């Protein structure tokens, strides 16, 4: 068993901070391009628009259904007095994003500044847009990963069906 003295705590804290910084950088890079569930789309490719309103701890919808290959423009209005984000991804991506948001909130600035292609952050009263092309079938999620919001129920499933199936 390893003994940890109080004199070693500053070294352990510095080591932990370094590891977290490298892990955060790796997670941030993951959102900038193509990932297993899709890629950023362009306005010229949009097949349809889905409008959502973040109000309290929900988006006003229970689930989303799209087709593989479909490019969706999500328009999210933050009608709440709270900060919110809208992130799309698989469960692992959502968990990583929640950890990143928690780290940002705990930092000295408390700012949640990120530019992941699969997420949009909204201050109260703001409207944002996210354009995404879903590349494969499966079950994914939309979620708000501001600390505590996911846990309060601000998330739901995205079902991506075969391209030839009506949604």
Describe the structure.
- The protein is α+β, with helices and mostly antiparallel strands and 167 residues long.
- 23% of the residues lie in helices and 32% in strands.
- The protein contains two helices and nine strands.
- It has helices spanning 9-30, 91-106; strands spanning 38-40, 48-54, 64-67, 71-78, 84-89, 119-122, 127-134, 138-143, 155-161.
- Strands 3-9-8-5-6 form a five-stranded mixed sheet, covered by helices on one side. The chain has a four-stranded mixed sheet with strand order 1-7-4-2, with no helix packed on it.
- It is globular.
- The model is unreliable at 1-32 (pLDDT under 50).
Which helices and strands occur, and which strands form pairs?
Elements: H1 9-30, E1 38-40, E2 48-54, E3 64-67, E4 71-78, E5 84-89, H2 91-106, E6 119-122, E7 127-134, E8 138-143, E9 155-161
Parallel strand pairs: 2-4, 3-9
Antiparallel strand pairs: 1-7, 4-7, 5-6, 5-8, 8-9
In short:
With about 170 residues, this protein is of the alpha+beta class. The chain has two helices and nine strands.
